[in-house]
Amino acid sequence: MENKLVTENSKSAFVTVLAWIGIVFSGVGTFIAIIQNIMFRFLMPKLPIEQLLNEHNSSLQNPEITRFMFRHLDLLFLVALLISLFALIASIGLLKRKNWARIAFITMLAIGIVLNLLSLVLQQTSMQQLPLPLNAPVEFQSQMETMMRVMSIVSIIFGLAFTALYGWIIWKLRSPKIINEFKSVEHLNVQ
Fold first, then answer.
1. Domain ranges of the chain
2. What's the pLDDT at 70?
3. Taking the model in full, what pTM does it have?
4. What does the longest C-alpha to C-alpha distance in the chain come to?
5. How do the residues of the chain divide into helix, strand and coil, expressed in percent and rounded to 5?
């Protein structure tokens, strides 16, 4: 009974809330990914991806990254499922104060930071390549350019905000207090 009280008292609200948020989001993500995989593999007829891509062969209309994604949709859906499932398992492990889960969570967040920053660069590059109709009125072109700038600024703000949030969570998960919390729970589980 005394060990249980020590364990419950040593659990921080930060880790518990983070774990539950992870469980909810990754659980929903896993469910959606399962549905996507089932629909793509069994319910949808084979899509004529190559034919659709070849009909619009312009590199402006179909950048290579878009072509790659459409050619490998089945692989992308499978990877999304595996990532969501791994995040769900790591979140449950985090709730149970397993140190491997804390390390996995830190790793996922660090990868998230890198991908977030890369997606910002890719998004800014792809927005600059979007063609405007040549015969469009000047007012329309001006409005489109303004809209693109606003979208660009908003995406940068959100991207940097999530990068900062992920960095802060990593910092908290690496703090001595949290590390000791995981060590004390593991120590109690061994006894």
1. 2-190
2. 72
3. 0.75
4. 78
5. 85, 0, 15
